[in-house]
Amino acid sequence: xxxxxxxxxxQRRSGGTSxxxxxxxxxxxxxxxxxxxxxxxxxxxxxxxxxxxAFHGGAWVFPGGRIDPGDYGDAPxxxxxxxxxxxVREAKEEAGVDVDGDALVHLSNWTTPxxxxxxxxxxxxxxxxxxxxxxxxxxxxEALQWFGPDEALAARAxxxxxxxxxxxxxxxxxxxxxxxxxxxxAIEAAESVDYLPRFHFIDxxxxxxxxxxxxxxxxxxxxxxxxxxxxxxxxxxxxxxRD
Length: 243
Description:
Elements: H1 4-14, E1 27-38, E2 41-49, E3 60-61, E4 64-66, H2 79-95, E5 97-98, E6 105-111, E7 120-128, E8 131-132, E9 141-147, H3 149-157, H4 165-174, H5 180-189, E10 193-195, E11 198-202, E12 205-209, E13 229-234, E14 237-242
Parallel strand pairs: 1-7, 6-10
Antiparallel strand pairs: 1-2, 1-4, 2-3, 2-9, 5-8, 6-7, 11-12, 12-13, 13-14
Helix pairs in contact: 3-4
């Protein structure tokens, strides 16, 4: 069965568009990658979005959402702090869990590609659950489940769950960590990554090209030797490359 993302790619291709059309502005948002330790290794909390939602309906994502005006508090120009507050709030609203905002580590920023009907500029944070009970809100999220990174990726590969590119790439990165402490230490020591993809059709699917890639400013250079940072979307077979 084709995923909504694959259907969208097919629709865009049949419409004759290159994937670089103008679109709406990206709305500031925040998400939190919640981690825990288990005997089998590190686990990540994923939430299944309601199938009724137009944006990634039915996909498994990290809890998150728009940054609300109230998240800015008395600092209307402090977007990083507002994003952190939004991540804490969304964890509670969508997943029922408590998060210590001061303990969160900034992991990355993801911006939805140009041409998408809805676009978000999302801050990704990583942190452990500090309390509360895991309960899906029944509106935006239909179910919650803890996955090992490899377990979630394997489930996607056989069509049991759908992941969007930000979740897919983040889970790939988390595979190298055995414990929450390992992940938090390494992520805090590293520079956060900005993912501002350029979307391009290829013969057997599509590719998202990220800023460090040799072809980022000229998609005609996809085969040119040089740095690679891209995600190939070929049906159910995805391939992430980052030199």
